[in-house]
Specification:
The strands form two sheets. Strands 4-3-6-5 form a four-stranded antiparallel beta sheet. It has a two-stranded antiparallel sheet with strand order 1-2. The protein is 52% helix and 14% strand. It starts with 6 loop residues before the first helix and ends in a 15-residue tail after the last helix. Among the domains are: 80 residues, no CATH class; 101 residues, Chitinase A, domain 3 (Roll), CATH 3.10.50.40. With 293 residues, the chain is α+β, with helices and mostly antiparallel strands. The protein is extended. α1 runs parallel beside α4, α5 packs across α12 and α6 crosses α12.
């Protein structure tokens, strides 16, 4: 058992040390652990565990990580000997993992392409959107899994039913539903991780104004603006959020262009009507396409 104040983190890191060895050939670095013909070099080890962490932990914990690698490697070898890799369920999971790994690697390449945002770009963006950054908004929202249900609730809102009551009854956001959908106050940039939601909020200008049904990171949303008040902020205070926003925007543009171009290369079809039918959703649901090619 791994001990010390870093014990829990060590357990998590040790789970990564299932592989990372040089097999069936001469290793290219100093070996720190071996099982049969498999070896773990210091270079392999440092690719999986941060050097700073290793320096700060104890010799006992570092040894425990090596013992954990040995245990995992022994179990892995015996699993191969038993032929578990040939089991249909295991083969399917291996293929799924391979697909996810390759997709993430490709996405990472795109992210690296769009990482650079100049200080000039960020300052220019701040100047253009200064009024938005210099205000704090207070909002409530309710989320829905389907556009159809969101439209039905919006209709009730327009007929006079209170936002608070409908949010408590219908919103799928469990954290805010109990409080009538109240999200509280935030400044532009504080929700940079949710650009679609932030953009929808910024379109609301008057206190009490309610959005149409908007598609955000939380599925389908209806948003209510309670207040918007002035609160000046310096560029340095929102620099990080601007950088995130601009990088996210560049990534979205680049990835959409890539997918659009690849759609010309790889024929595809989707059948949402089949999915909806299998889930028991009425085929007359508003906005439901029949097929896409």
């Amino acid at each position: 058992m791994l001990k010390g104040k870093n014990g829990y983190l060590l357990i998590l890191i040790s789970l990564l040390l299932v592989s990372g060895c040089k097999k069936e050939k001469e290793p290219s670095g100093k070996i720190i652990a071996k099982v049969d013909k498999a070896s773990l070099t210091i270079e392999d080890f440092l690719k999986q565990v941060p050097a700073q962490f290793l320096i700060q932990t104890s010799a006992e914990n570092r040894k425990a990580l090596l013992e954990n690698w040995v245990a995992n490697e022994i179990i892995y070898k015996d699993a191969l000997k038993k032929g578990l890799q040939k089991e249909p369920e295991i083969r399917e999971k291996i293929e799924q993992f391979k697909k996810q790994l390759l997709t993430r690697a490709y996405i990472q390449e795109i992210l690296e392409e769009v990482q650079f945002v100049s200080d000039l770009e960020a300052k220019s963006y701040f100047e253009i959107h200064k009024d938005e950054y210099n205000s704090i908004v207070e909002v409530s929202h309710m989320s829905f899994n389907s556009k159809q249900q969101a439209e039905e609730v919006l209709s009730k809102l327009k007929k006079g039913t209170s936002f608070y009551k409908l949010a408590k009854e219908y919103s799928t956001d469990n954290e805010t539903a109990a409080n009538g959908g109240h999200l509280g106050e935030f400044r532009m940039g504080e929700l940079a991780a949710y650009p679609l939601f932030e953009e929808a909020v910024l379109k609301l200008k008057k206190s009490g104004e309610i959005s149409d049904v908007v598609e955000t990171e939380f599925n389908y949303d209806i948003i209510k603006l309670h207040s918007r008040k002035k609160s000046p902020v310096n560029y340095e205070d929102v620099y990080q959020s601007i950088m995130m926003k601009l990088r996210t925007g560049k990534f979205q543009i680049r990835s959409k262009a890539l997918v659009d171009s690849l759609k010309e290369v790889y024929p595809y079809e989707i059948f949402p009507e089949v999915l909806e039918k299998e889930m028991g959703v009425p085929l007359t649901a508003p906005g439901l396409p029949t097929s896409t090619e």
